[in-house]
Automatic annotation (TrEMBL):
Boundaries of every Hen1 N-terminal domain copy: 1-238
Recorded superkingdom: Bacteria
Compositionally biased spans, kind Acidic residues: 241-260
UniProt-recorded name of the protein: Small RNA 2'-O-methyltransferase
Catalytic function, reaction form: small RNA 3'-end nucleotide + S-adenosyl-L-methionine = small RNA 3'-end 2'-O-methylnucleotide + S-adenosyl-L-homocysteine + H(+)
Length: 496
């Protein structure tokens, strides 16, 4: 993992004093997860570049405590990407510069220098838009290069990995501080335990800029590894004069509903609709978050159908899986997601490693894509597809339709997706923008209805549509649900 920091300040070699690292020497530092090497690829009076090369011990990542996830044994990008390991290395290796101290050149500490930082590879599931939303408000010019999944197979498309170059005229301590905080935010993970001390660390490093950042809630939430109580504490202490209202509190909770899920402003109580009513009766709170409403509505539909074996396709971090496990009527549950990271988070959310063996036998987590036929999905009574289709490129929906409705062919399918017409109700959402940066499309009620009816006719299903969330007289509800029921009398050979 490589980070370079360059300057054209004259003389540029003053960068060595600020970093407390001699440009003429290669220096190596031992860390508890590997080694960090500091060297200077160029060091002239016109331009100077310092490089921090992080050599993470991949074997130790697997053998160390807390790394029992079987997925890590086979797929692990930690040695190669910018993550919380890099933040720790910055604090250990460039700690004096990070804290804004330099005995030999104290005047440079408070001087804005022309600086450029390049991160060789950074993971960012939110894409280029999320990268820019993090760094551009801080005054950086952001250059982004997104890498292919596989250079030998360009048809596989783009990966969530980027090379990022940040340019600005600022103090070196500011640049290092922004990198220290925001790199784990982009990665959306940390390799160590998160507690109250992390809140203090975030507030210390975020002082003077984080409270003004338009994405401060999401930054705090990701930095604190999705811990809502810590996030609330951080935000209350960060901006004490700004009391959080219900919408702001809901926003924090909404971010918790995804790794690859939708992040949006949430809504409160909604009027009962046919399949939703029983779910609302069961939920005694007066206010229910929108994503929770989706889960409860879909769950109630499948429960009423008497399903025993169920699929959660695009299961994400396992919020629905947790509810399904609580229902004794479901004999077997399979969760599938294209993201290894999401599956790891689902494992932790469900505490699979501590689950009793009989309970553990009821659930299977698998990695896979919904655009390829998968025999593991066959033989199930019902399938949940909650806020998933809008993350697919529309040309690939045809493959998804066959995978689910022709080959898996469950008795019941429940699909939910945002209602694009309702977007005008979100004051913070610009006109023409989607609710989430990873959405490839968002359908109106008419578009979803047309797609659902054509789908039902092609594969021998009946479909019932239902709103989810508070209904507006003009634009409808924020989410829409399609309930597909298979025609038992239709022969499989009749499917078009």
């Amino acid at each position: 993992m490589l980070l370079t920091i360059s300057t054209t300040y004259q003389p540029a070699t003053e960068l060595g004093y600020l970093l407390h690292k001699n440009p003429a020497r290669l220096q190596t530092f031992d860390l508890n997860f590997g080694q960090a090497h500091v060297f200077y690829p160029e060091a002239t009076e016109q331009r100077c570049t310092a490089a921090l090369l992080l050599d993470v011990d991949a074997v130790q990542l697997v053998r160390g405590k807390g790394n029992a996830s079987s997925l890590d044994q086979y797929v692990n990008d930690r040695p190669y990407v910018a993550s919380s390991f890099l933040s720790v290395a910055l604090a250990d290796v460039f700690g004096t510069a990070l804290n804004g101290r330099c005995k030999q050149r104290p005047e440079l500490v408070t001087t804005s220098l022309p600086l450029q930082a390049q991160i060789a590879v950074v993971p960012c599931l939110g894409g280029e838009a999320w990268l820019r939303r993090l760094f551009e408000p801080l005054g950086y010019t952001v250059e982004v290069v997104q890498h292919l999944l596989d250079e030998l197979h360009p048809e596989w498309g783009l990966s969530p990995y980027f090379t990022v170059t940040l340019s600005a005229e600022c103090r070196l301590s500011e640049l290092l501080t922004h990198l220290y905080v925001l790199i784990p935010v982009l990665d959306n993970s940390k390799h160590y335990w998160i507690g109250d001390d992390e809140v203090n660390k975030l507030l210390m490093r975020g002082q003077g800029w984080l409270e003004k950042h338009p994405e401060r809630r999401r930054i705090a939430y990701n930095y604190l590894r999705h811990k809502q109580s810590l996030t609330r504490d951080a935000l209350e202490r960060l901006v004490p004069e700004e009391e959080q209202n219900d919408d702001e509190a809901s926003e924090i909770e909404a971010v918790d509903e995804q790794a690859s899920e939708e992040s949006k402003t949430t809504e409160a109580q909604f009027p009962p609709a046919a399949p939703v009513e029983a779910a609302q009766k069961q939920k005694k709170e007066k206010s229910v978050r929108l994503h929770e409403q989706r889960l409860l509505a879909a769950l109630e539909v499948v429960r009423q159908r008497g399903a025993k074996r169920v699929l959660d396709l695009g299961c994400g971090e396992g919020r629905l899986l947790k509810k399904l496990l609580q229902e004794k009527s479901f004999e077997h549950i399979l969760g599938l997601d294209v993201s290894y990271r999401a599956l790891e988070l689902a494992q932790k959310r469900l505490h699979l490693e501590r689950m009793p063996s009989r309970q553990r036998e009821r659930i299977t987590l698998v990695h896979g894509a919904l655009t390829y036929r998968d025999q593991r999905l066959e033989g199930y009574d019902a399938a949940f597809v909650i806020e998933v289709i809008e993350h697919m490129d529309q040309p690939r929906l045809r493959a998804f339709e066959r995978v689910l409705f022709e080959f898996a062919h469950p008795q019941t399918v429940v699909i939910t997706t945002p209602n694009a017409e309702y977007n005008v109700k979100y004051e913070t959402l610009d006109a023409g923008k989607f609710r989430h940066q990873d959405h490839r499309f968002e359908w109106t009620r008419a578009q979803f209805q047309d797609w659902s009816q054509q789908l039902a006719e092609r594969f021998g299903y009946q479909v019932q549509l239902s709103p989810i969330g508070p209904e507006d007289a003009e634009v409808g509800a924020p989410s829409q649900m399609g309930i597909f029921s298979r025609h038992e009398s239709l022969d499989r050979s009749e499917v078009v």
